[in-house]
Amino acid sequence: MKNFAGQVVLVTGAHGNVGAAVVKELGARGASLVCGDAAPLSQQCPDNMVAIGGLDLSDPKDVGHLVAAGQERFRRIDALVNTIGGFRAAHVTNAALSDWDFLFSINARIALVVSAAVIPAMAARGYGRIVHVSAGAGLRAAGGTAVYSAAKASVIRIVEAIAEEQSDHGIVCNCILPSTIDTPQNRTAMPDADHGAWVTPSSIAKVAAFLASVDAGGVTGAAVPVVRRHGG
Q1: Is the pTM of this model over 0.90?
Q2: What string of DSSP letters covers 106-144?
Q3: Is 95 in a helix, a strand, or coil?
Q4: DSSP 3-state assignment of 202?
């Protein structure tokens, strides 16, 4: 299914578990890809990909460099899929301001900065798709997740605002709310959990692919739960 043929998608967090799954899914569907991450990325890229590592995607200058590289190579960016996020446990009574700064930077600030970087050119063309990966915790906090949940809730609010602000410019903006993601890191942290009930990165990637596609034009401002394995 090559429903992304001719489409250019910017994927942030491309080195991570979810980001790599999104890159694989969209590549298989024929997308041209602009990949960015804080981690080093391979310089040996296929013709349909630009990859830049070592970026601080909370910094508008670094994000601007990534967007400019994509536009120089492909002349436009049709969609953004932002998979960057992070978690730290912190109770209200012992949360440090450094926890607040870290979690809001890696979750909410990056969502804001990367969105702001792609919107002007999308609005000028009258077409765009923006997808952020938030979390189910953005809807309700559990004990020890006060700061994390607040940061993920902020991503949802940013998405809602973009959806309203860009409704007349052909841009739709949505986010995905996974439950616990099946990653090596989470398996190490929670060895006794029921891993079979967790969401796989590939399941998230399939939802992201729909929301980033031409077919998603009627969906905007939505927070879409993904709570089990694809096909499960």
Answers
A1: yes
A2: IIIIHHHHHHHHHHHHHHHHT-EEEEEE--GGGTS--TT
A3: coil
A4: helix
Angle, helices 17-28/201-211, rounded to nearest 10 degrees: 50
Residue 197 has what DSSP assignment? G
Whole-number Å distance between alpha carbons of 232 and 226: 11
Residue type, 170: G
Q: Which residue has the tokens 């616990």?
A: 180
For position 172, what pLDDT does the model report? 98
Q: Which residue has the tokens 């990653």?
A: 183
The residue ranges of every structural domain in the chain are 8-226
pLDDT band for position 232 (cuts 50, 70, 90): very low
Closest CA to 118 of 157, 172, 160: 172
Tens of pLDDT along 48-105? 999 999 999 999 999 999 999 999 999 999 999 999 999 999 999 998 999 999 999 9
Superfamily of domain 8-226: NAD(P)-binding Rossmann-like Domain (3.40.50.720)
CB neighbours of residue 42 within 10 Å? 10
